[in-house]
Design brief:
Rossmann fold; 7-stranded parallel sheet; 10 helices; 32% helix; globular; Glycosyltransferase
């Protein structure tokens, strides 16, 4: 780039069920703004209302869509609850295309697609083409672990499309923890486009308490699929060796009302999800959670021992969290318990085993993935 103008970055993000995609995108967007981009985030999910505005980042909301249920059986218009139809697609695609045309980005960063979010090809293919016609570089933004699909031919088609669409593919992970090939059979096809940014983790913080006698923190991310874990944790407390510790249960904004605990025993605090979650982990004796990207990033940074109960979906086809949990267990940082095996008794046993894990003062993984993403994108524009 020449001249004094800051390069423009347009970042398309579509979260469907939880808030993990939004958290990771927020970290990347802020890092890009700090690196010198004018950043616009084009959001297609439901605004969650819990993330503060970020300096240097403009947000534009497309007509919102979400998953109909935890099984991703359909995509619905978040304003009406009805399954999206062709008229909705036309309206949404037009809104997206208008924003790309108006933004005139130097870089168009697209989250997940086409490795996921393929149901949004109706808007993303024309948007990417429009950005390319305007001279933009195109980059993809994906997790280090994808939901694995057994159809190798389909994976090959996805990889070829990604090669056609993108100048760079940012894989937000440390290959020392997980590599794209672990969950995507056609990874070699896009190897020359891939940059491993490191895990998009938070800045390290120091807790205020002593982890050796700290509390147990139970969390469920956004909460959309966390009710069973919360119920099991409350009952497991009396069955495990940490029953005399304070327990803090954090419920996300998407936890259904019928899953919210009403009969809470003494010694257990129920609170909304907190922005100082990392600080809580840094002082906690143990974390009990699912195994989403951001939660595991927080665990990697804090070193807190954990029990991970990964979300696998109603049919067991959601493979990303189970693989992430197994890798954490193999690294000696967590005990993994499958959703299918979740009972208060089994969870209590997992807590007792995890309580004996070594607490890691430092992470061996690169966790500065947001800043590294910003550097890679700045290099892309020259």
């Amino acid at each position: 780039m020449t001249g004094a103008r800051r390069p423009r970055l347009l970042f398309h993000v579509q979260h469907m069920l939880g808030i993990g995609h939004r958290i990771r995108a927020d970290r990347i967007a802020l890092a890009c703004a700090r690196a010198g981009f004018d950043v616009t985030v084009l959001e297609g999910g439901v605004p969650d209302g819990i993330h503060p505005e970020q300096p240097g980042v403009t947000r534009i909301h497309l007509p919102p869509a979400r998953a109909a249920d935890a099984g991703f059986s359909a995509i619905v218009d978040a304003d009406t609850g009805r399954e999206i139809d062709d008229a909705w697609r036309v309206r949404r695609a037009a809104a997206c295309l208008d924003e790309v045309s108006a933004a005139k980005p130097d870089v168009f960063l697209v989250e997940s697609y086409p490795f996921a979010r393929r149901a949004f090809a109706f808007e993303l293919d024309p948007a990417i083409a429009e950005a390319r016609r305007g001279g933009a570089k195109i980059a993809g933004s994906i997790r280090d672990i994808l939901v694995a699909r057994p159809d190798r031919l389909k994976n090959a088609r996805i990889a070829e499309k990604a090669r056609t669409l993108f100048d760079r593919i940012l894989v937000h992970g440390d290959p020392g923890f997980a590599q794209l090939a672990d969950s995507f059979s056609a990874a070699p096809v896009v190897a020359d486009r891939v940059i491993y940014t490191g895990i998009v983790g938070p800045e390290p913080v120091h807790g205020t308490g002593n982890p050796s006698d700290g509390e147990v923190v139970v969390s469920v991310g956004g909460g959309a699929v966390g009710g069973a874990l919360i119920r099991a944790a409350i009952q497991a407390r009396e069955l495990c060796r940490l029953k005399d510790r304070p327990w803090r249960i954090l419920v996300g904004p998407n936890l259904p009302d019928f899953d919210r605990p009403t009969d809470v025993p003494p010694g257990v605090a129920i609170e909304p999800a907190r922005p100082d979650f990392l600080s809580l982990l840094s002082s906690a004796s143990l974390s009990v959670s699912q195994a989403g990207y951001n939660t595991v990033a927080d665990l990697a940074v804090s070193g807190c021992p954990a029990v991970l109960v990964p979300f696998a979906g109603p049919s067991g086809k959601e493979t990303e969290q189970p693989l992430r949990a197994r890798l954490m267990q193999a690294a000696g940082r967590a005990v993994c318990l499958s959703e299918a095996d979740l009972t208060p008794q089994a969870l209590a046993g997992a807590i007792d085993r995890a309580a004996g894990l070594f607490r890691h003062a430092e992470t061996p993984y690169r966790t500065g993935g947001a800043a590294a993403s910003a550097r890679a994108l700045m290099e892309l524009v020259g």
